[in-house]
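pinging the channel bc i need a second pair of eyes. not urgent but kinda urgent?? the chain im working w is below, pasted from the shared doc
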Amino acid sequence: MNDRLTSKPMVLILMLGAASLILVSGSRVWVSGSVEDAVLGASQLHGRGAEVAPGVMASALVGLAAAVAATTSGRVVRVLAALSALLCAVLGASLVIAILADPGGALGPLAATGAGRSGTLDVHGRAGPWAWVALAAVVVMGLGGLGALSGGRRWHGLSARYDAGEPDRQGAAGPAVSGATQWDQLSRGEDPTAQR
């Protein structure tokens, strides 16, 4: 992959943007259809993404967490986070594809619930544009995970000043150490702001 496409900022933008778009699509109508039932009569049904594919929304949330972990952690956690993002993208894509392949089947349980029944009803459905948007966003999230895997070995974690107890490049202890020391002083009843 191109170095620019696997850079930390680009991967972060891809993964956060894609996961956010998936979550936004969850509140939009993915499938619409009609059912003829003795209880419901002839009625129109609409299924939002979060109703027909809650697993896709969950994969987007894990993708958000993986994006943050991949760009702020060390090498081992970065690889695990990138693999998590890839697995979430595969799961999300398979769920969206299943809905696109059988939109009526996705609406069937909603129709049964509306009729006060368990199981599913026979619904004639069609997929809307938001399901396709979600599929595209899941693919982009997967590409971000691939970018993190291939380019992550060149990335650096957060600077040493964010790591408690680790010295920074000049060899001095970072603020986390002094913060911990000040906390210890407060715990002993001392005032860390008092001049010595």
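so Residues 165-177 have pLDDT under 50 and may be disordered. and Residues 164-196 form one domain. — does that match what u expected or am i reading it wrong
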